[in-house]
Please model this.
Amino acid sequence: MSARLIKGPEVAAKIRQGIVDELKGLTAKTGKVPGLAVIIVGENPASQTYVRNKERTSKKLGFHSEVHRLPENVTQEELLEMVNRLNMDDDIHGILVQLPLPKHIEEEPVIHAILPEKDVDGFHPVNVGNLLIGAESYIPCTPHGVIKMLEHIDYDLKGKNATVVGRSNIVGKPVAILLLERHATVTVCHSRTQNLAEVCRRADLLVVAVGRPEMIKGDWIKPGAVVIDVGINPVDGKLVGDVEFETASKVAGYISPVPGGVGPMTITMLMVNTLQSFKKKYKLV
Model:
């Protein structure tokens, strides 16, 4: 068996074209465009790359884009002042603070300071709570991207055994909630899970987000299963996922590659959330 690839760039391109098409009509009605502001603190190379990609994508889609680059030694108060200014800016519909932040800054108060209606990352407690109870919310971008990839292959989650490896607030927990909403039977695994390989082997759908290179082996995968690899790990000058792709692709029915899988979806869903915020502001939904 050779797995079919779920190619993130293909799925993302289709969604982005939909954004461009929809935005034409919305701009004609309002005379405005969605505005996305990104705040980055310090010179973390990975963060700089992510922010450049977000800026490039938002401009390409016709959004108003702002990037506020703050020095490594910025104070918590100064960062919060920047967030508050953007909260009050009518031309900004989405605010994102690039994580991680320097050690002297507490992430939680910064995330909480963003207005829930501009929290296009979906990290504010209001949005997290709404997601948990099934109310309208901004869905965290990577988990949302995972769902869109499954929709792309017309995967029916009803009654399926879905295993999520990883329980982070950013990916593991929200993706588990989204799978539950779609009537999957969900198991969440973590560092204290016993017999992890056996748990994985029972999964019709395996979503892996642990940040450990090639942790999940091919013989851990149920033949024909769908495997979504969220991991992006630099190893010997190249990027690899959390799943051992070479062996897993010979067992799975579908698999997302790394790179070229979930990565492009995260930025795309950020744009979807920003467009949604824009539409809400102008009562277009």
